[in-house]
Amino acid sequence: MRASFALLLKLIRDRRQINPEHWLAVMDRFFAVADADDSLRMDTLNIHDLCAQLYHHGVYKVRDYEYRPPKIGRFVGWTTVPPLVRIILTVPRESVQVLQDHAEKVPTPLLQCDVGGKVSLNIFADIHVAFGRVIPMGERARPWVVFEEDPAGFHGTSSLLVSFIMPTRLLTDFEPAEVINVNFSVRSIPGPVTTILAPILGLKLSLFSAKLMDRSLVQVLPEVPAVSAHTTPAQVHATTPGQIGPSNAVSIDLDEECELVSALTSRIPIENQEARQLFAAGATPQIKQISACTMQINLGRFTQRLVYPFPIIGIPIIHTFQAEPLIPTLQVVVPASGPFKADGMQLNRYPVVGDPNRMTPWNVHRLHLNSLPIIDTKAKNLEQWLDNHIGSMMSMRERSVRKKNGDDVLVSLKDTIHALFVRSSGIQGGAMKRAFSLSDSTNNSDTIIFVSDLRYDLHSHTVVCDAYALPLTKPLVQELSAPLGKLAHSGNLVNFKQDLQSWKQMLPALVERCRYSWSHGPNCEYKSNDNIPLTVATESDPLCSCGRGKDVDGMLKNSDWSKFAPHVTRMALSPLFAVSYLETVIRHPNERRCFVCRKKGKMKTCTKCQKVRYCGPVCQKRDWRLHKEKCRP
Ligand SMILES: [Zn+2]
Ligand SMILES: [Zn+2]
Ligand SMILES: [Zn+2]
User: Fold this and answer.
1) Collapsing DSSP states into helix, strand and coil, what is residue 421?
2) Distance 307 CA to ligand 1 centre (A)
3) Following CA atoms 342, 345, 346, 349 in sequence, which dihedral angle do they give, to the nearest 10 degrees?
């Protein structure tokens, strides 16, 4: 986990092309925040794991790593002792048998290593494991090993090899090597892991332990950083002919709470000579939004697109400024678009893009419905979590919109999805309903949704409706008048008054995201109409006919539904969760945090600029070195 975090930091640094000096300030700030956070106190056991990963991936070098450890303990006779070593521990297969014995109840315990003696203890959670054997090679001055993997893996007979990296100092500077042990254990977390395994393994949940000096079980090898710490990040895009200048990465401004994206900034240095002359002669760059995430700049005959990582509101503020070495630079600042903001573009938030051979549903993930487990709606504790889970679709803003009966398309869409999950699971009492009619303000039924199953969407930690859409066109209503009448009079059809346009905009994506057993044919209407959805008008079909009547086993289980089966298209409807970095989801917006330690509670504001909040003088002092440059009244 800490390795992925180190790699994330590396990615950010390289993408943003942050210079080494600035990067050091970023890392200093990171450690200052981590230091000041009381809730991370237990993390001292992992700090060396983090530092080793940061060093290994060339992200940051703590001062300790300048130091050359003495040639004692396992390092007697080494030519040089590097700051980082790799430990390989041989764990006999019997020691991990207990995990297999309890795999039913403790399916995926987290494993880790720790190293310590009488006075020190450090945890290393980023371990690599494989069955096989390790053959020591080289000489004492320069040890290395050959690893032979057991092809039978779990079913073979070889020992388990566990490997991780750690700072050398911990093996030389704190206590004699003879008292240090290398342990392999299960991480203790509340729940079945601890209650089931502790009586067997002891409170430390130790699976196996070996002495550092035991050369038959513990290999210690020099480890070099995976990459040089001084790689120069590549320029993201160079200027191509006809471009005004290179489009660099977009930078994101966060609000002072570091929670909401307030604006996105792109900078284009005007590197093209002709463009620069135009600009110098007084030509004004024209800018407009051409899609949800794209702006376009025109300067004379030059056209250039700016692509943002998420939807924006196309009201740009252009600044120009002189950057060294005196290249005029266009700076475009645009606000991020909140969901369905009235001042945004009239966007379909869930479009399907691309041609029928390669269609991509946007803003929703793909699913293979048949492989997802079906939720047992008779399960006792269903109502304890399902309603809360679905309810968390709403952001704080949306909740207040709803309270004030405000008009917001997405809020009403989410409300309907909520109701659809609740009614089809039967969690709020009353009979379970599985057929839903979406109708306009005059109660004219426009689309029917049949929910065949509720399923767990395991990978996304949520749930999904395995459903079928039946858009009702006039001819279809005539053709199906008998079964439709029967359905309407059965009392099993729940009616929702809805903004039909937003449903019709969304339906193609809901179908496309779970399309698996059929393909779009040569006569696909999406192709001939060049429009997805085909239409958003009432009593007309937004979907192409390619998936109609395909993959409809779920419709055939219910005899009242089977007549509709040839006309429906399978779809996957998920809760639409708020985007947490654009909107506050659960936290109260008035709840302030300290800029340094992120603690909540009563805050004091910087008296000079009134812009930054601190919990007290300690945190304010800690931040002053960095803050004083920005502190303007
Ligand atoms: Zn099609
Ligand atoms: Zn604080
Ligand atoms: Zn200030």
Assistant:
1) helix
2) 29
3) -100
Beta strands across the sheet bearing 294-299: 286-291, 294-299, 302-307
User: DSSP secondary-structure letter at 105?
Assistant: T
Into how many domains does the chain fold? 4
Evaluate whether 213 touches 178 at the Cβ level (below 8 Å).
Answer: yes
CA of 618 to the centre of ligand 2 (A): 7
Is residue 235 included in any domain, yes or no? no
Are both 497 and 395 inside the same structural domain?
A: yes
Contact 292, 347 (CB under 8 A): yes
- As a whole number of angstroms, the distance between CA 448 and CA 450 comes to 7
Tell how far the Cα of 334 is from the centroid of ligand 3, in angstroms.
25
Residue 256 shares a structural domain with residue 173: no
pLDDT, one tens digit per residue, over 345-393 is 456 778 888 777 788 898 889 999 998 999 998 888 888 899 889 988 8
Cβ neighbours of 332 (radius 10 Å): 21
Same domain, residue pair 367 and 300 = no
168 CA distance to ligand 2 middle (Å): 34
CA of 29 to the centre of ligand 2 (A): 13
239 HSE (CA, 13 A, CB side):
15
Q: What angle do CA 506, 510, 513 make, to 5 degrees?
A: 135
Query: Residue 357: inside a domain, yes or no?
Result: yes
HEC assignment per residue over 484-547 = HHHHHHCCCEEEEECCHHHHHHHHHHHHHCCCCCCCCCCCCHHHHHCCCCCCCCCCCCCCCCCC
- HEC secondary structure over 179-235: HCEEEEEECCCCCHHHHHHHHHHCCCCEEEEEECCCCCCEEEEECCCCCCCCCCCCC
The 10 Å Cβ neighbour count of residue 124 is 24
Among 334, 362, 389, give the residue marking a domain's end: 334
Percentage, residues of the chain above pLDDT 70: 91
Tell whether 495 and 549 lie within a shared domain: yes
pLDDT given at position 591? 66
Q: Please give the distance, rounded to the nearest whole angstrom, from the Cα atom of residue 522 to the centre of ligand 2.
A: 63
Among the candidates 334, 363, 386, a domain finishes at: 334
pLDDT at 338 over 70: no
- Local structure of 89: helix, strand or coil: strand
Place of tokens 């805050």: 603
Cα 345 to Cα 104: distance, rounded to the nearest angstrom: 51
Cα of 518 vs centre of ligand 1, distance in Å, is 9
- Residue 146: inside a domain, yes or no? yes
Same domain, 55 and 153: yes
Same domain, 295 and 365: no
pLDDT at 346: 54
C-alpha of residue 522 to centroid of ligand 1, in Å: 8
Spacing, Cα 267 to ligand 3 middle (Å): 27
Q: Do 466 and 364 lie in a common domain?
A: yes
Cis geometry, peptide bond prior to residue 533 (ω within 30 degrees of 0): yes
Residue 403 lies in a domain: yes
Domain limits for position 600? 592-633
Specify whether 550 is located in the same domain as 471: yes
**Rounded distance from Cα 601 to ligand 3 centre (Å):** 19
